[in-house]
């Protein structure tokens, strides 16, 4: 009071502004986390690996962030997603073999606490937009029972991008829901646009100064069937091969969707406290238009082309070192403890994943010296990778 009474109006204003900035720092919520997963995107299908690809939005994020050059995933969809959300290798959760087909009653057991559930314990607002593929034979196994406040998307894979039906599957059916309800409002609309719009709505519904957002956006793009609005395919009119031309167009549509999401994040004021992760779920299927050059093999194989994923992280404020290629060993199982640490939480001991935030943040050597590619007793294949050979 004494101090105040002797202050001029101007220095009082100074003090007020200073106090407010101190308070802002103290009250700053945990970082927002946006986790974008592309489906079946090959190593050579992104602009930062292949200048023939038109992915300006992704390239900008990758080049201003950290490009992960040794980021490994499982060779197909369900196993990768199970590791991403549990922090365990798929052979520890029973999902190491292939994907969950429409009539297969597999799921993530209830005793696994999923990443969004952990983040909810830390008071995050959690939303999912896109492809689940982790089981739906009981409501308890579906997204809104596993930590997500809302869900818009599909339970399975390989749907038609416009009708949202798994037309050619062994058990055909419409596969599109909003939360628990079957949702027909977007029939006829390309899924990349539907998902980008929902993601933008979520971004605009949260106040980034007051609550922390975890937004999980596993796009349908660029899985087959090969379908895209003509204008994206026309970008690649010089490509003779029809499958490749369509596939590349699908990648550019995905890029535009990511651009719309990042524009919304910028406009709504998330960027000063945001970590954005982009990764593929597995290597590209070369029989469906993808390209993994110079890596050997394809989706569904344990070769590099099936398991070395295109990935980057972007943040304006949370990374100590940016604009470089990080070659440290990383595995999809590591996102669980790594993201929890960014959120201010801690994973339980015994996980297969390791918190590699120091490596991502500053490029210091990775604590991971080996990983298991997979152990699939039905396919009768297994492999490990170790860092040291000397
Ligand atoms: C990144 O990975 C690719 C594919 O394995 C390899 O050709 C390239 O040399 C790597 N880059 C660095 C900087 O290690
Ligand atoms: C969850 O339950 C399964 C099946 O009973 C078991 O194999 C697995 O070890 C359990 N995992 C955890 C993390 O408790
Ligand atoms: C989450 O919010 C509740 C209610 O406001 C509060 O009691 C709790 O401490 C918060 N937890 C964390 C980890 O911030
Ligand atoms: C889905 O749930 C979210 C969160 O509760 C809600 O905002 C949204 O309106 C719901 N969607 C539908 C179609 O009910
Ligand atoms: C179904 O099969 C037809 C003929 O092979 C193909 O043209 C179409 O793209 C497929 N649709 C889906 C949803 O896979
Ligand atoms: C991106 O946003 C623009 C403007 O709202 C819209 O016209 C376009 O369809 C969106 N693209 C995608 C892929 O969502
Ligand atoms: C990165 O920077 C932050 C803030 O300056 C610091 O606390 C942290 O220790 C740094 N991390 C590493 C691994 O250097
Ligand atoms: C590696 O793990 C050890 C033991 O948990 C820890 O003390 C160290 O900080 C970690 N280093 C990095 C770079 O993550």
TrEMBL record:
InterPro entries: Alkaline_phosphatase_core_sf, ARSB, Sulfatase_CS, Sulfatase_N
Pfam family, one: Sulfatase
GO terms of molecular function: metal ion binding; sulfuric ester hydrolase activity
Domain (Sulfatase N-terminal) ranges: 31-344
Cofactor annotation: Ca(2+)
Xref: CDD domains: 4-S (cd16029)
Signal peptide positions on this chain: 1-24
Signal found in the keyword field: yes
Superkingdom assignment: Eukaryota
Keyword set, alphabetical order: Calcium, Glycoprotein, Hydrolase, Metal-binding, Signal
Homology family: Belongs to the sulfatase family.
Record's protein name: Sulfatase N-terminal domain-containing protein
């Amino acid at each position: 009071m004494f101090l105040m009474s002797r202050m001029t109006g101007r220095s009082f204003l100074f003090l007020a502004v200073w106090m407010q900035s101190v308070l802002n720092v103290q009250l700053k919520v945990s970082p927002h986390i946006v986790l974008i997963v592309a489906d079946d995107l090959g190593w050579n299908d992104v602009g930062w690996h292949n200048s023939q690809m038109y992915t300006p939005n992704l390239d900008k994020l990758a080049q201003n962030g950290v490009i992960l050059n040794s980021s490994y995933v499982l060779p197909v969809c369900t196993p990768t997603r199970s590791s991403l959300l549990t922090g365990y290798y798929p052979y520890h959760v029973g999902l190491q073999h292939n994907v969950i087909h429409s009539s297969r009653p597999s799921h993530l057991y209830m005793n696994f606490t999923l990443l969004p559930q952990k983040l909810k314990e830390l008071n995050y607002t959690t939303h999912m937009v896109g492809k689940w593929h982790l089981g739906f034979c009981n409501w308890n196994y579906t997204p809104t029972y596993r930590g997500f406040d809302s869900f818009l998307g599909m339970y399975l894979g390989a749907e038609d991008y416009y009708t949202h039906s798994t037309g050619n599957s062994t058990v055909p059916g419409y596969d599109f829901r909003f939360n628990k309800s079957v949702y027909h409002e977007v029939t006829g609309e390309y899924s990349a646009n539907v998902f980008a719009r929902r993601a933008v709505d979520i971004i605009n519904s949260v106040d980034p100064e007051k609550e922390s957002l975890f937004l999980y956006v596993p796009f349908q793009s660029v899985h087959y069937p090969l379908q895209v609005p003509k204008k994206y395919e026309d970008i690649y009119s010089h490509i003779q091969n029809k499958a490749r031309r369509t596939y590349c167009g699908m990648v550019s549509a995905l890029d535009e969707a990511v651009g719309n999401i990042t524009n919304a994040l910028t406009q709504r004021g998330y960027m000063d406290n945001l970590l954005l992760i982009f990764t593929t779920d597995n290597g590209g299927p070369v029989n469906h238009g993808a390209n993994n050059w110079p890596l050997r093999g394809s989706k569904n194989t344990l070769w590099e082309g099936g398991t070395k994923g295109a990935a980057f992280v972007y943040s304006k404020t949370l990374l100590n070192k940016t604009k470089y290629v990080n070659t440290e060993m990383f595995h999809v199982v590591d996102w669980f403890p790594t993201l929890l640490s960014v959120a201010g939480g801690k994973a339980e001991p015994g996980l297969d994943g390791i918190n590699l935030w120091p490596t991502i943040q500053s490029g210091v050597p990775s604590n991971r010296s080996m990983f298991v590619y997979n152990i699939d007793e039905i396919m009768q294949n297994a492999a490990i990778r170790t860092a040291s050979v000397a």
